[in-house]
Sequence to fold (321 residues):
Amino acid sequence: MTLRIRKYSWQLAPGALRDIRQAVFIDEQQVPAELEWDDTDAIADHFIALTPDNTPVAVARLYPSIMDTAHIGRMAVLPAYRGRGYGEQLLRDIMTDAAGDYQDLYLSAQTQAVAFYQRSGFHVCSGTYDDAGIPHVDMRCLAPQLITARWQDHRWPMVAGKDDRSWVFESEGDLIDAMDSLASQARQSLWIYDQFLDHDRYDRFRLREIISAVARRHRLSDVRLLIHDDRPLVQRRHQLVELMRRLPSKIELRLINQDYPSEAQAFLLADRHGLVYRHQFDKPDGFAQFSDPGHSKRLRETYQRMWEAGRTSLELRELPL
Fold:
């Protein structure tokens, strides 16, 4: 059954929206009323899902944060209507509505609902914590526009270790979303190979924060940058260079040995299952795989050979912080 989704401000929302949240969160899950009703309601968009006979069955809210980020929350389906796909319909409608305005979507998920959100492209980005006596984790979707454009092609869109289909892209925006989505899910190793770390593609706040998180995540974290040309890094201040110099034991950069065979295609490798591959250095065209250990293994072996033959950048070593 296809639901109709309606969006309201808090002031104009029908009483059914409050009733569903009262029934699910306060009555069923025993969330204290003072935690359920907060000031965020006043600034959020509120969504309510209706069956064809106008029965309200599910609700959620979406509110903006900083830097093109929005949060999805207070998602609830009445007990009598669970197990019918209504929650997924509501979530995907909200993501489609938000995709044109926000680059990142966040939510706080009860641990028992993690798989539900993964099926729509969210991945876990925190440890477990307590919220109102219920274990939760933070989840994130960094490519809502790309994902919502291809709902029918992927069951676990852009979830590392689960989505085994290819994401083919031709635009710079789709490339960046694929890179950031995969990199943010790296648990221990993140290896980047390119001609150079050009500023439009790599000198970005979101990518810097992602790489910083990977580098700090594990005592054996391994972040590598392997490039042909370090001149753009020397000529202009670069966020990744600053990060590398602050985390020297976690992030290392090497230059390709010109006397040693090297690849003519750029790629990014996350752990042992994910990759983003570009067919040419100077174009964004390529593909991403979020669960392809075989292809990833072959590229890791290639990367390791080039890395071992590489050299450090004397120019970067001499730059002041």
Notes: The chain has a mean pLDDT of 94. The CA atoms of residues 113 and 125 lie 14 Å apart.
